Amino acid sequence: MRYHTNPSTLCIFCDNALTRETAPEHILLDAFGGRMTTKRAICTVCNNRFGGSIDKAFAEQAAHLRNMFQMPSGSGKRPPGIRNVDVIGGEKLELLPDGTPQQRSKPFRVTKNDSGSFDIAISVRSLDEVARFVPDIAAQTSKSVDEIWKVLEGTEATVISRPAGVLNFQLSFGGTDPMRSIVKSCLVLLATGVGSDALKGEPFAAARAFVMNGGDEFNLARCVIDGRPMPQDVAEALAADFGPIFNLIVVKSDNSGRMVGYFVLYNLYGWEVCLAECGAPLDVNFALASNPLAPQSWSANPAAALALDFEWLAAANDEGIEEEALRRISAAMKHQFPVAQARARKRETGRIVHEVLSRHAVDGFIPDETDAKFRFSSELAHRMAHFLLGIPLEENVKVQRPDG
Ligand SMILES: [Zn+2]
After folding, report:
1. Is residue 241 part of a domain?
2. Whether residue 271 sits in one domain with residue 213
3. 110 Cβ contact partners less than 8 Å away, ≥ 6 residues apart
4. Which of 22, 23, 193, 374 could form a disulfide with 39 if both were Cys (CB 3.0 to 4.6 A apart)?
5. What's the domain range around 303?
6. pLDDT in tens, 260-316
7. What is the distance in A from the centroid of ligand 1 to the CA of 258?
């Protein structure tokens, strides 16, 4: 079906005019890797309001997965870092945006004794990091940087390197605000096809009001999380084009004017929304699919998604959702976790090589002497073996002030 699109004039949600200056609205959130935008659906005011509220609430639910699978935003921003990650049987960790686990304890602690002297406990990722905190330690103890170094230099320190352990977190998607964001995405996709003015009437009043004001009634009556697996041929075709954890939005109506939206996040969860019970434009069929691992790979109206049956889309039910979600998460992990692990391993081995190299190199090179080469290669082999086998490494070192 083709539609002649009317020139859109008004925002779907308020009566602000849409102009060339209107801020582009992401149809799928930027945070989920969405790249397709439109100026023909939502005014700048509503765009900002939703961006800071319901969209943010939805995006935050995906933060862990984005960090773990290293999924950039649609505009190329790196994944979010995660604070307060529980480690089973261990201390809390922080995950940096590149996925590196980082201990969360304070890097240093200064305690003043009764006698007026100080105890300084430093806990850092590498000896090189000590230098970063010396100025702060100096400030807290009212001593000079030189005086602190004088104390630190030659001190025995223990460097313990060990694997982070099993990170523990819960995935949880959905709830009223994220659902409002989903309904908005569906309406915006629809507006790109039929024009925003076609959404201003009575058939979409309930959906619009839900996006604007929330409310449990619409959520309970018209939104369903889907526990059914997608038709296998469709899922396979989409995975072939957009990767195993594709995103998908479909908006479809039948020939009686009933319209549904179907939203799939990371091929993990699917939600169905009844956008209009009747009176919607007839036989509408729009879709948007994308690859969150490679956001440049996206497509409006991919054939596989357009082929989804209206009856199937409109018959979502949450029966078996736990099993289905678990099945899909396991499948995604099986595919994606080794990729993330390989990336983390590469990053960590690079760090170890860099650290050992900088300790043995003179002017950037290992001196061309058998002894120097031997010391370098044996330390490198030792560190690598411990890292690759996951054995904690403890070594005693003397703190040294770096040159310069
Ligand atoms: Zn508006």
Report:
1. yes
2. yes
3. 118, 119, 120, 137, 140, 141
4. 22
5. 25-77+171-319
6. 999 999 999 999 999 999 999 999 999 999 999 999 999 999 999 999 999 999 999
7. 25
